[in-house]
Structure formats: structure tokens, C-alpha cells
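REVIEWER CHECKLIST
Item 1: Sequence provided? yes
Item 2: Single chain? yes
Item 3: Sequence as submitted:
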Amino acid sequence: MRVLVTGASGFVGGRLAPALEEAGHEVRAMTRHPERYEGAGTPVPGDVADESSLRTALDGCQAAYYLVHSLDSADFQAKDAQAARSFARAAKDAGVRRIVYLGGLGDDSDDLSPHLRSRRQVERLLADGGVPVTVLRAGIVIGHGGVSWEMTRQLVAHLPAMITPRWVHTRTQPIAVADVVRYLVGVLEAPEAEGRAFDVGGPEVLEYLEMLTRVAEIQSRRLLIIPVPLLSPQLSSRWLSLVTDVDVQTGRSLVDSMTNEVVVRDDAIRRVVPFEPMSYDDAVLTALGERARERRAARRGKTASGLGRIR
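Item 4: Structure as written out by the authors:
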């Protein structure tokens, strides 16, 4: 099957494209800078803000993965809505038979954060175009390079003690990025997945507090956490930007969502794509291992570059 992967150079897309190729699919990797793309698949230029580029990128594709968002923008809800409308129209006109979208967990009956409300809106707008949409709703995705994971890792790495807001006691169901990719690949040709939304998560429901302390334990670090009742989302996001490399706007969007419980309510995906998801500790160890290997490779590259200059 010829498949378009949007966000092909991103955290999930960069792992999904090679997995799709391994499963026997022909991958078109959509990116705004195809000349710089070095990942799996054939790079094609495309921008969700440019509908004409989407039509070109989608031409001849039977399916498409929608993995883009604008969390780093203050008006991300409007941008994401417009992008979803454009993509839905372009996919319909191109004859795409299925869209697979990675959204966010959270109960519709809850007072969802702007970030999670936007994810739900994108689901509806993609489906409004007439192409069947399969939605996978995930909470925190654990893997090297993921924003939520990096925020967790850097908090533990940089602070031996931290004052935290009440959201550290909110429950979530983190999932390894490798398992998200496995689900994304698995639903592509499953007829029972067409037009449905699935909750995806790892095997454990944890408070954010537990997530932080277990990362510290795995790294043999001491971590003192003091929750306080009065720490606004705005102050929390500014605090995050000081001690991590997450920008204020993205941090605010993520912090707002941390007041919502994001756990799996329906495990129907386990029957469509049956396998045992990775434990939280194993997901953390895998992410830390990926980071260590990347840093070693970067150091070797610098050393080789330096030797080349000496010669």
C-alpha cells in the first residue's frame, strides 16, 4: 500500500516510516524540507498550511497518517483546525481510503484542556471530509525526543528537589513510543479499525508523581518532591521553561492537560492489534538507552571531524 506519513521527521513519524516499510508498504515521507530528509521512505514536500502542497503529496496514496500539531503556537487551536480541514479535503479529492490519526486520551465528559479539546476537534474535522478515520488516543508517550518524556527526564536530571502543583497526583497511562508505532502499523489494514477511535496505553496507571520518582530510582538519583496547592498553569509553564528546554507555550499547553486524567477506558485495541505493551520502567530504560547511544555517536562524530581537520 502506498502511504503518506505527515510529520515524517518528527518523534513518532521518524519511527513510523521505517516500521511501515518493514511491513511492506511504500512510504511517502511528507516534510517541509525534503532536501534535508534522511529517514525512511521517499521524501515529498508538503505543509499542512498549504492545501495545494497536500494535494500533490497525497496523489496516488491509499492511506495517510496525520501526526502534526501546533502546540508551540499561542493560536494552536485555530491553526490545527484549519490544517485538519485542508488535509481532509485534499485526502478526499486524492481518493485516500483511510486516515490514521494519533490523538489524545481524556474523557469527553471531563472539562478537557484546550490541548485535548483541540485533539478531539481535529478528529471530527478529519472525519468530516468523508474519508474513514482511525484514531488512536494516547497519553504520555515515552521515548527519546518526545516532548512530554523530555520534560520528565530533564526535571529529574536538573532538580534534586522540586516544588510541584497538585497535578502531580493526576493519573495517566504512559505508553512506549515503540508500542504506539506498533499500534499505528497494526490498524492500517485491519477492517475492524475503520472509522473507530481507540484508547492506547501501557500496562500501568501512574500518577505523574510516580512517573518522576521511578525515573529517579532507575537512574539512582535522590528526588524530593513537595506538592503545593497554589501554582498556576502560567507559573508552572514558566518554571518548566527555566529548568527544561520546553518552551513556555508548549509547556503551558502540556501543563493545562495535566489536570485531566488520561487513562484507557476501553481496551478494544488489544483485540485488533494483540500484543503485550512494554512496562513503564522498560520504556524509560529504552528511552535512556536511545539517548545514550545518540550522545556517544555525536561524540564520535565530533572526534572524527576534529581528526580530519588536524590531518
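Item 5: Key structural point noted by reviewer: The longest helix spans residues 280-310.
Item 6: Recommendation: ____
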